[in-house]
Amino acid sequence: MEQGRTRLSELATLFLRLGLTAFGGPAAHVAMMRDEVVRRRGWLTEQQFLDLLSAANLIPGPNSTELAIHVGWARRRWAGLLVAGASFIVPAMLMTGALGWAYVRFERLPETAWLLWGIKPVIVAIVAQAIWKLAPLAAPTWPLRALGAMAAVASALGVNELAILFAAGALVAATRAGQTGSPGAVRQLLPILPAAAGAAAAPVVTLSGLFGVFLKIGSVLFGSGYVLLAFLRADLVHRLHWLSEGQVIDAVAAGQITPGPVFTTATFIGYVLAGPSGALVATAGIFLPAFVFVAASGPLVPRLRASPLAAGFLDGVNVGSLALMAVVAVQLGRAAIVDLSTVVLALASGVLLLRFRLNSTWLVLGGAAAGLAVHLLR
Length: 378
Fold this sequence. Notes:
By secondary structure, this protein is mainly alpha-helical. The protein folds into two domains: 8-187 and 295-377, no CATH class; 207-289, no CATH class. The chain is built from 15 helices and no strands. The protein has helices at residues 8-21, 26-40, 46-57, 63-106, 113-138, 142-156, 161-180, 207-220, 225-239, 245-257, 265-297, 300-306, 308-336, 340-354, 360-377.
């Protein structure tokens, strides 16, 4: 992983573009990042990319944003960390902030079903292609493939994502420890795990209280947008009574229908509660822990790979991470491929990716154009 050869302008351009086009949630974001930084630019090897993905999965916060921050750290250390992370976040922040303004003004979200109709099948193809390429590296042996299958089944049955990752990592590390006679290697990974942070919140809406609520969420939240919804309901609806149930659901929807990290739901909520200042404060609160955690854990990743037994833990987490992506891909497929037209879109996207190596950004834009065309013809 050669550091220092990537210009900051290259990092900014790439992650701004991804922030503008990365629809579909974390699994889709990861697939698009892999397409750009591994396949197209060669900034990372497949193994390095998998290790950074696993490191992002082991800390709380928005995983795809943390992966972007990890890539920035790998290429240009502190400057790259800040540029890559901010570039990925800002487009989504501006878009969800605009939705927040429209929601306050018109009391409803704009209609976007036609856009997602065309984009979702393309996203399914992008995620499937990434899994297809990463699977031989993550699971080169039959025991690792069996572990991946078990992790996928556990995820489909609703087992917590973090429990799956740690169980997979610990199993592989313990197996290799038994083979080498060096137990206890998993302790080498403990520095990567952050302590949960808490934050007091004010009973009325203040900028400091808003920052505290979202700082706490960004510091302790593992998992998907559905887990984010649970945190938002607990804090903002039931404890503080700042929002109604319907407003929280609308906020999560705003984060999901815009590209980039779903955590920009915080931007929407901040705008609804306290205008532009609230949007900025809430966004800063929920994303700040991601920068801190990556800065703390990023330097450890190469050291973990250099240790045979810690590398075994990473190998197990890699398999678990890929299994989680596969389950998400199936769930996305069920929601996205709903008729013959979406089947054709997904298959055509897969062919363009695998056979002609078309840039995934152009595929997403093509899917949006297809959705618009169908919307206008109906």
